[in-house]
UniProtKB/TrEMBL annotation, chain B:
Component of the 7-subunit TFIIH core complex. Transmembrane segments: none annotated. In NER, TFIIH acts by opening DNA around the lesion to allow the excision of the damaged oligonucleotide and its replacement by a new DNA fragment. In transcription, TFIIH has an essential role in transcription initiation. When the pre-initiation complex (PIC) has been established, TFIIH is required for promoter opening and promoter escape. InterPro entries: TFB5-like_sf (IPR035935), TFIIH_TTDA/Tfb5 (IPR009400). This is General transcription and DNA repair factor IIH subunit TFB5. Keywords: DNA damage, DNA repair, Nucleus, Transcription, Transcription regulation. It is found in: Nucleus. Belongs to the TFB5 family. GO terms for biological process: nucleotide-excision repair, preincision complex assembly; transcription initiation at RNA polymerase II promoter. It comes from Oidiodendron maius (strain Zn). It holds the Pfam family Tfb5. One of its GO terms (cellular component) is transcription factor TFIIH core complex. Its main location: nucleus. The lineage of its organism: Eukaryota, Fungi, Dikarya, Ascomycota, Pezizomycotina. The keyword Nucleus applies.
Length: 73, 71
């Protein structure tokens, strides 16, 4: 029983929480890839899924501006 | 335009994640998006409450059925 408790405690500590923003519903694969690449380059990307076309970033302001400027072109 | 949704990315063991999903299934107040086996996005303001609920759930799991006490 003691071992079991210890295992749960370890698992609990293993939980990692990162505040930020989930980006989803990209129009197409190209837009998704471009944004994910940019997010990675500026160092805000923490998680992504190519299959789901979603990614998670710690900050979104710079990425928003980047998306807007791409759209304006 | 893609959507940006504020939240907290939670990375944990699949066993912990399944407990979180179970807690959420009762109220649908915590989970913004399930991402994979060990990753989900949680409502930022609900995180402290979720942690408390998770601790309770884990305590229940820890306690064996017999509470005859130790000698």
């Amino acid at each position: 029983v003691v071992d079991q408790i210890r295992l749960w405690q370890i698992e609990n500590e293993r939980m990692k929480a990162t505040p930020g923003f989930l980006f989803k519903e990209f129009e197409n694969q190209k837009e998704y890839e471009g944004c994910a690449k940019y997010a990675d380059e500026i160092g805000v990307l923490v998680w992504k899924s190519d299959a789901k076309r979603m990614f998670f970033v710690t900050r979104h302001e710079q990425l928003r501006d980047h998306i807007k400027s791409r759209k304006a072109k | 335009m893609p959507r940006a949704i504020r939240g907290v990315l939670v990375e944990c063991d699949p066993s912990i994640k399944s407990i979180i999903v179970k807690i959420d299934s009762e109220e649908h107040a915590y989970v913004v998006e399930e991402l994979d086996d060990q990753t989900l996005v949680i409502q930022e303001n609900m995180l402290p409450l979720l942690k408390a609920r998770l601790d309770d759930a884990l305590k229940e799991t820890q306690q064996p059925a017999d509470d005859s006490g130790s000698d």
